[in-house]
Amino acid sequence: MKSSADVLAEEYGATTIDRQDWAGIAAQLDADGYALLPGLLDRNAARGLARLAGTLREAGYEQPPDNPPGRGEWLYFGSRLPAPWTAWREAFYRCLAVVANRRNERLGIENRYPDELDAFLRRNREAGQRRPQSHLSRLGVDDYVLLHQRAEGGQVFPMQLAALLSEPGEDFEGGEFVMTEQRPRMQSRPIVAPLRLGDVAVVATAGWPREGARGAYRVSFRHAVSRVRRGERIGMEVFFHDAP
């Protein structure tokens, strides 16, 4: 009998990512700092991944570092991402590397990202970055995630993924995915990404280009999750670079 992980891997292969509207995703990133992929996981797949929250610790997955970014439970996957995310991470990286290299060109950054995730992770290891950051978060009543940005180390990919594995209004209230855009010499701009069950967002991190009167300038994005007022919110964040 096939495991639920095997079924997910078969139904949600890399082609699911390859056939997304990548021109539209890049345009939304430029406009909003994130790009929403609604219902990338169907309800059953999202619920299946959410159920991992009850078994990750027993399965030997890593626990969070000493200073988690807020109040709640963080369960780090290490190098063992659950299906379909192992294949998705590689496929997302291939598509987003094109966006990332265009971003570097606009900002006048000479560094270019390799075409494949394995090659980029080799650069991470050479730079002393060996701690995987992808994790699942489990937030109960009064839990939250502080504004933060994971951009430590010399090899940083300027985008990450955030998925919601619970249904707002049904499983929890509050718990909005919030971003701030920090602009030079201006007040920060708040952004609320309307995530629903099974949605995945591509989120800009580190510096991101904005077009001004004198050409491109850099803005910075941080993200958070507001306080959960009722129920339980389960989310997932996937990163392409490792931490020092």
Can you tell me about this structure?
Helices cover 27% and strands 30% of the residues. It is α+β, with helices and mostly antiparallel strands. It has a six-stranded antiparallel beta sheet with strand order 1-10-6-14-4-3. Strands 2, 5, 8, 9, 11 and 12 form a six-stranded antiparallel beta sheet that branches. A two-stranded antiparallel sheet has the order 7-13. Strand 8 and strand 9 form a beta hairpin. The longest helix has 23 residues, at 85-107. The protein is globular and about 50 Å long. The N and C termini lie far apart (40 Å). Mean pLDDT is 88; it is low at 1-9.
What is shown here, in short?
The chain has 244 residues and is of the alpha+beta class. The protein is 27% helix and 30% strand.
Helix and strand arrangement:
Layout: H1 4-11, H2 14-18, H3 22-32, E1 34-37, H4 43-50, E2 70-71, E3 73-76, H5 85-107, H6 117-126, E4 135-139, E5 144-148, E6 159-164, E7 172-174, E8 177-182, E9 189-193, E10 200-204, E11 207-212, E12 215-225, E13 228-231, E14 233-238
